[in-house]
TrEMBL record:
InterPro entries: GCP5_N_ext (IPR059169). This is Gamma-tubulin complex component. It comes from Micrurus carvalhoi.
Length: 110
């Protein structure tokens, strides 16, 4: 179906963007196929639980504290500022700030 084709293209683009792999490259095609199989397996069989805001905030605070402990105060300040800016952004498909979608994106990145 058209939806399946669009979904396949979107998954392939996601893999290219996240990993930098090129499925047309002979050296990378095996790795790309493994990533594609992994992604589809997760989409089909994984039960996606709701993101725990508390857990994400705890991880973000832990990263901030590690940066402070290691005297990287500039990065610590940037980390806190950028994560707060992101949480306060209005996303295209979501109204409001600090929504589950924001925390889901951060959880994926962390």
């Amino acid at each position: 179906s058209r939806f399946d084709q669009e979904q396949d293209l979107a998954v392939r683009e996601l893999i290219r963007q996240v990993t930098g792999l090129d499925e047309r490259s002979p050296e990378m095609s095996g790795h790309f196929q493994a990533a594609l199989n992994f992604a589809w397996s997760n989409f089909r069989f994984h039960q996606f639980l709701d993101v725990s805001r508390h857990k994400v905030e705890k991880i973000m605070e832990g990263i901030y504290e590690k940066l402070v402990v290691h005297s990287d105060l500039v990065k610590a300040g940037s980390w806190r500022r950028l994560t707060e800016e992101f949480l306060n952004l209005s996303l295209p498909t979501t109204e409001g700030t600090k929504r589950d979608a924001h925390y889901a994106v951060l959880s994926l990145l962390l």
